[in-house]
Design goal:
Layout: E1 15-21, E2 30-36, E3 43-52, H1 55-62, E4 77-85, E5 97-100, H2 110-113, E6 139-141, E7 146-147, E8 159-163, E9 167-169, H3 176-179, H4 185-196, E10 204-208, H5 212-224, E11 228-233, H6 237-243, E12 249-252, H7 261-269, E13 275-278, H8 283-291, E14 299-302, H9 316-322, E15 325-328, H10 336-348, E16 358-363, H11 367-375, E17 381-385
Parallel strand pairs: 10-11, 10-13, 11-12, 13-14, 14-15, 16-17
Antiparallel strand pairs: 1-2, 2-6, 3-4, 3-8, 3-17, 4-5, 5-9, 6-7
Helix pairs in contact: 4-5
């Protein structure tokens, strides 16, 4: 049956707009005029309202060939408005406020139907330069050269095309400069505390790495009523920042003397933390997090993304005798289509605080300033307004 949708004046036509294009690894992004094709079946074209800069954008911006793919439009933390809709799309209309997410949620496969998983088996997670279904791009420059996608979102563009499996409809009352944070980092941290670990009241939490994900974990644990939240970092300034999100104790891993960080935490907690989170992506920190997890019921959650060749070793005897568990999780275990909206409601109710994560706001033309602030360690999240 033919789908009928309200259409905009630009529906079905290519749109010329501005995008910040990464032409070469590590070089400043170029604000260029590009062409964004109309959405195909199961796709929507979105006008981006604002976007924020994530560590993953930095990592792939730095990445040289063969893994780095250029020219590319980066960006994946964003909020926008549906401009036009392709065939076979249900549940959305032009003008809806939406958040794109890096994980697909098709609602049809065994994983998406289960409460035990957030990893779609029909559209598995990968950092692809193409759209999911046909392996092509919706972007080109004015010379006709193909521009690559990033994480199925590419939000450093005034308009982008996203598959419906990556789209969550959002309550438009949440300010866009806060809503965009829910697309990745903050949600990953809060989700890990709520869904993957299921932190309960009066528990003890240790967080290795106090970047945006680690602070998101702290915020999630704070809301859940954890009585002690220990932050581990090499930057002592992170303690003051972390206090806003519930950090009660701080351990500088460079200042532990002859003791390991895990030994210090075991002494502090008289046996280890109930929940430990590794958010940096360093194998040695995963081992330390597991080591200071309380025996009998302790759980270690791995959130950090390390190089593909990285390995970490845990003694099978220790695993058997300790009764502890360890797990890795993407996007904090959240199901995008339901749980992003749940976090948005929590913010509207003034339970979840997002304001403290934003350290800078700027115009699209200043996007390279956001990169510089991040590289200098001077920002948690820079929000970039498209203003179109």
């Amino acid at each position: 049956m033919e789908q009928k949708h309200e259409s905009s004046k630009t529906a079905g036509k290519p749109i010329r707009c501005r995008a910040a294009v990464a032409r070469k690894a590590g070089e400043p992004l170029a604000i260029e005029e590009i062409v964004v094709a109309p959405p195909k079946s199961y796709e929507v074209r979105i006008r981006i309202i604002c976007t924020s800069l994530c560590n993953s954008d930095i990592a792939f911006w730095k990445m040289k060939e063969p893994d780095g793919q250029f020219p590319r439009i980066l960006g994946h933390e964003a909020v926008g408005v549906v401009e036009s809709i392709g065939e076979d799309v249900e549940g959305l209309t032009v003008g809806d406020t939406v958040i794109p997410s890096i994980l697909a949620d098709c609602g049809e496969c065994a994983d998406c139907k289960s409460n035990k998983s957030n990893q779609c088996s029909k559209f598995p997670f990968e950092i692809s330069p193409w759209m999911h279904r046909d392996g092509t791009s919706r972007f080109s420059d004015t010379n006709g050269e193909t521009l690559y996608h990033f994480a199925y979102i590419s939000s450093f563009s005034e308009y982008t095309v996203v598959d419906i499996t990556h789209i969550t409809k959002l309550d438009s009352t949440i300010p866009p400069n806060r809503a965009c944070l829910l697309a990745c980092g903050v949600s990953t941290g809060v989700g890990a505390a709520w869904k993957a670990a299921n932190v309960e009241a009066n528990s003890t939490v240790a967080i290795f790495g106090l970047g945006i994900i680690g602070l998101g974990v702290a915020e999630g644990a704070r809301i859940r009523g954890a009585k002690r939240i220990i932050g581990v970092d090499v930057n002592p300034e992170k303690f003051e920042i972390g206090k806003k999100f519930g950090i009660t104790d701080f351990v500088n891993s460079k200042d532990c003397g002859s003791k390991s960080t895990s030994e210090v935490i075991i002494e502090m907690t008289k046996g280890g933390a109930d929940y430990c989170f590794e958010t940096v992506g360093i194998p040695s920190l995963i081992n330390e997090a597991f080591a200071c997890c309380r025996k009998g019921w302790g759980k270690t959650i791995v959130l950090g993304v390390d190089p593909p060749e990285s390995q970490y070793n845990i003694s099978s005897l220790v695993m058997l005798h300790s009764g502890k568990s360890i797990m890795g999780v993407l996007f904090g275990g959240l199901k995008p289509k339901t749980d992003i909206a749940m976090l948005a409601k929590s913010y509207i109710k003034k339970e979840l605080q997002l304001d403290g994560f934003v350290t800078d706001e700027m115009e699209f033309e200043d996007i390279n300033k956001a990169f510089n602030l991040f590289l200098e360690g001077k920002s948690l999240r820079s929000v970039i307004w498209m203003n179109i």
